[in-house]
């Protein structure tokens, strides 16, 4: 694969990985390309060991399934990386090739030059695009790519399924928290909001002693959380953004998050422990032992009003810290490792900081935030971008994505699906003003539009799945009971393919 598709003088290449399953393939069948997005892919994803929507579609249409790995992820590394830190040794001279256009062109190049092992040159040519219909399937970031490819290269990719794709790139994605707040029990969300407001008030208007006490409490909570921020050795090391990050752990730092697992797994126990917290006597002071923060009988009966309404916002703050600690310990017990390989994590940081944006920060328009006002864009860029990638641009170039239309895009031969309570969905094509005041409120239709023609008016072909979270329709999610959703999604896309595929080369 060319490292640079757009400079003919740069002849360097690299090996981009993919996996293929032709178990169900019959001559004339389409190629389904599942884009794995911002993570390394695995061979098992192409194996028929469990139900997956892409594999089921390949079976149904006698197609060939490709699992595609994105450049700079997994083993598809154009440049050498430090295996421990994950950083490319060439620094910016490597990451400047990790951008939207180069990565999109990878898939275009692959589809046009496809030569699968075990097939003759003639058979391979017949399987490449445009000799065979190539169908792109992707979720989340890969879902945005699935939609945009039908605008960028409709002559190469015949159809797409875009699941949970945040196509309306923004720098500050404060609407992310709206579906979470709307799903949480009122007492729990009110207590988190009260705790955040209390902390923000101390940081902006508190005395030196009050700030010192707050920092000590935050330091204890972070130290007791096995998944806490590293490199914080004293309370004085904490920046306001660090403090905000500690408080945002249930929504941002946790692997078992609402976005993927829904309320019950993501926040259910956190809210129960928060609402069962018992006020300490005597209260926490600068000389109190850490156990004043880390230990609690948490046996008080939860009230409808919540801790703040019953015991005051300061106690709500300490209750939230206790619940954060317990969630961190529980998360670590269930999953002590890291969800991403080091090189994958660095690559995704670069993409967020250079082009993608979508920093999930506090809302300047909401006085009752779930995250601190100090969880903001400047702090996020300083801690997540410039400190790790000093050669990253000052601000993500989101125009690199928005030029394809954002949530106003009208591609043909695309099905869009989203989870009804997916926080990412607030910047998708099916976003509503109930979750994002700026959303276009486009209607979804189950009527398949003609081949090569967008749905009429401002409609979107596809479905919003009530009560479902991020990417629930590619394989059964046992935590959100999405097996029926995954099956329904296949039926909905098959309904469209039955209309679109007959017009290929017609």
Write the layout of secondary structure elements.
Elements: E1 18-21, E2 31-35, H1 53-60, E3 64-68, H2 92-95, H3 100-112, H4 121-127, E4 134-139, H5 141-152, E5 159-163, H6 178-183, H7 186-205, H8 208-224, H9 240-247, H10 258-275, H11 291-294, H12 307-311, H13 313-334, H14 342-356, H15 377-386, H16 399-402, E6 414-419, E7 444-445, E8 460-465, H17 483-500
Parallel strand pairs: 2-3, 2-4, 4-5, 5-6, 6-8, 7-8
Antiparallel strand pairs: 1-3
Structural features, described:
The protein is of the alpha/beta class and 506 residues long. Helices cover 38% and strands 8% of the residues. It is globular, with a radius of gyration of 24 Å. The relative contact order is 0.14. The model has no long low-confidence stretch (mean pLDDT 95).
Short overview:
The protein is α/β, with parallel strands linked by helices and 506 residues long. The chain contains 17 helices and eight strands.
Shape: globular
Q: Helical percent range? A: 25-40%
Parts with pLDDT < 50 across at least 5 consecutive residues = none
Task: Spell out the helices and strands N to C.
Answer: EEHEHHHEHEHHHHHHHHHHHEEEH
In this structure, how is the largest beta sheet organized? 8 strands, mixed
Strand order of the largest sheet: 1-3-2-4-5-6-8-7
Strand content: 5-15%
Contiguous helical run count: 17
SS content category: alpha/beta
- List how many beta strands DSSP finds: 8
Mean of pLDDT: 95
Cα(first) to Cα(last) distance is 31 Å
Radius of gyration: 24 Å
């Amino acid at each position: 694969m060319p490292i640079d598709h757009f400079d003919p003088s740069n002849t360097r290449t690299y090996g981009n990985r993919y996996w293929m399953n032709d178990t169900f393939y019959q001559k004339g069948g389409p190629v389904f390309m599942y884009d794995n997005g911002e993570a390394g892919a695995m061979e098992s994803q192409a194996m028929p060991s469990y139900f997956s929507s892409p594999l089921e579609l390949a079976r149904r249409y006698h197609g060939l399934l490709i699992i595609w790995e994105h450049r700079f992820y997994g083993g598809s590394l154009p440049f050498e990386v430090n295996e421990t830190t994950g950083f490319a040794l060439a620094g910016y001279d490597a990451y400047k090739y990790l951008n939207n256009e180069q990565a999109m062109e990878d898939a275009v190049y692959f589809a046009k030059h496809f030569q699968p092992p075990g097939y003759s040159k003639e058979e391979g040519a017949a399987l490449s695009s445009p000799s065979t219909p190539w169908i792109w399937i992707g979720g989340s970031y890969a879902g945005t790519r699935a939609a945009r490819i039908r605008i960028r290269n409709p002559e190469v990719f015949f159809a797409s399924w875009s699941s949970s794709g945040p196509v309306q790139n923004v720098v500050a994605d404060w609407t992310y928290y709206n579906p979470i707040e709307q799903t949480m029990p009122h007492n729990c969300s009110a207590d988190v909001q009260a705790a955040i407001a209390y902390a923000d008030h101390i940081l902006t208007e508190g005395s030196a002693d009050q700030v010192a006490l707050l920092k000590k409490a935050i330091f204890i909570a972070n130290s007791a959380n096995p998944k806490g921020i590293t490199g914080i050795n004293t309370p004085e090391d904490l920046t306001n953004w660090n403090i905000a990050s500690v408080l945002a752990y249930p929504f941002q730092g946790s692997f078992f998050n609402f976005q993927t697992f829904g309320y019950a797994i993501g926040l259910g126990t956190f809210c129960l422990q928060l609402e069962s917290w018992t006020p300490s006597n005597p209260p926490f002071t600068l000389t109190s032992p850490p156990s004043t923060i880390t230990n609690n009988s948490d046996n008080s009966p939860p009230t409808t009003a919540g801790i703040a309404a019953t015991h005051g916002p300061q106690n709500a703050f300490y209750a939230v810290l206790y619940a954060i600690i317990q969630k961190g310990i529980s998360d670590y017990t269930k999953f002590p490792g890291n969800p991403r390989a080091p090189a994958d994590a660095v690559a995704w940081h670069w993409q967020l900081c250079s082009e993608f944006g979508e920093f999930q920060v506090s809302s300047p328009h909401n006085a009752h935030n779930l995250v601190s006002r100090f969880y903001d864009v400047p702090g996020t860029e300083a801690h997540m971008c410039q400190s790790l990638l000093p050669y990253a641009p000052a601000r993500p170039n989101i125009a690199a994505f928005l030029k394809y239309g954002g949530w106003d895009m009208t591609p043909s031969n695309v099905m869009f699906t989203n989870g009804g309570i997916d926080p990412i969905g607030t910047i998708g094509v099916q976003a509503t003003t109930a979750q994002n005041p700026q959303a276009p409120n486009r209607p979804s239709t189950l009527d398949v539009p003609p081949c090569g023609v967008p749905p009429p008016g401002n409609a979107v072909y596809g479905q919003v799945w009530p009560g479902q979270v991020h990417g629930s329709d590619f394989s059964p999610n046992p935590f959100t009971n999405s097996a029926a959703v995954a099956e329904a999604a296949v039926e909905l896309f098959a309904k469209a393919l039955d209309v679109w595929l007959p017009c290929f080369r017609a």
